[in-house]
Amino acid sequence: MNKVGVIGAGMMGAEIALSFALHGAVVLLKDISLDLSTAGKSRIEGILATWEEKGKIESVESSKAIERVIPQDDYSGFDKVDLVVEAALEDIEIKRQVFSELDKVSKKDCIFATNTSSIPITQLAASTSRPDRFIGMHFFSPASIMKLVEVIPGVDTSEDTIGKTMDIVREIGKGPVRVVDRAGFLVNRLLFAFFNEAWRIVNEGVATPEDIDKAVKLGLGHPVGIFQMQDLVGLDNALAVSNILYEEYGERFKPSPLLKRKVAANHIGKKVKKGWFDYSK
Ligand SMILES: NC(=O)c1ccc[n+]([C@@H]2O[C@H](COP(=O)([O-])OP(=O)(O)OC[C@H]3O[C@@H](n4cnc5c(N)ncnc54)[C@H](O)[C@@H]3O)[C@@H](O)[C@H]2O)c1
Questions:
Q1: How far is the CA of 48 from the centre of ligand 1 (A)?
Q2: How far is CA 133 from the centre of its chain?
Q3: Could you say which DSSP state residue 4 is in?
Q4: Which residue segments constitute the domains of the chain, with CATH numbers given?
Q5: Mean pLDDT of 239-264
Q6: Interval between CA 209 and ligand 1 midpoint (Å)
Q7: DSSP designation for 267
Q8: Which has the closest alpha carbon to 143: 267, 18, 240, 274?
Q9: Among residues of the chain, what percentage have pLDDT more than 90?
Q10: pLDDT per residue over 142-168, tens digit each?
């Protein structure tokens, strides 16, 4: 990959841009304003500074990666990129608008990838002129560290596009898994099956969130507790995903009443300093 475009310079977009820049690609990082795309680049600089302090990267290498990221608020240069990864807000209308703009400026053979967590890939692909070159590339947070990318073809995605996308994921040092376009893809289905049972265990009074987190870390080797993870992701976001899975798969993913009560009380996690755990001190 010589040059890629990344749309949306928020949490995911900035880290996706960094993943490409670290492997030699020039990244056009576009947000709705120069302030926002520059803030995305600053996030990248902050991550690299921490890595340098920890001795995980040489300063020459990190400076080169920073230089490769070009913050912008328009599509200049997008006519030269072979791949665009869209990581704008999780809103179908915003994403459709972005892809219709990209369709006008991009090369015919440019691959369009979306990092959506919940919008059907086929539905987004159908709103472009290139459903055969449209695909889901679902990164995990923090994307500069997590090695998995779910590669999700839509109904009309060509085998050529799928193969190229799997290769690109490997080129940036990550591992692709190919998944059919169904709600939750692969990891969120597994994760929410796990979450659901944990919520039931708490509801039944069998164990506390503290002890469940201790158990999954010590007994299953998870690096982060699952209630701690929910606090980081936001319980409101967890409930939204739960509802999407319930809609697609029915009873087995029915949102937990306990989770609903926590969200109703606005105990939605670290961002409000209160979720399963207290972060006020
Ligand atoms: N947060 C996660 O853990 C996670 C994991 C996997 C996938 N995702 C998906 O990644 C996408 C981005 O999530 P995020 O957490 O980075 O959100 P975020 O809110 O941090 O960033 C979204 C960015 O998109 C920008 N944006 C909005 N409209 C735009 C437009 N028209 N053109 C360009 N930029 C625009 C916003 O200004 C913002 O900077 C979403 O689709 C989300 O579902 C998120």
A1: 21
A2: 20
A3: E
A4: 3-178 (3.40.50.720), 187-272 (1.10.1040.10)
A5: 96
A6: 29
A7: -
A8: 18
A9: 98
A10: 999 999 999 999 999 999 999 999 999
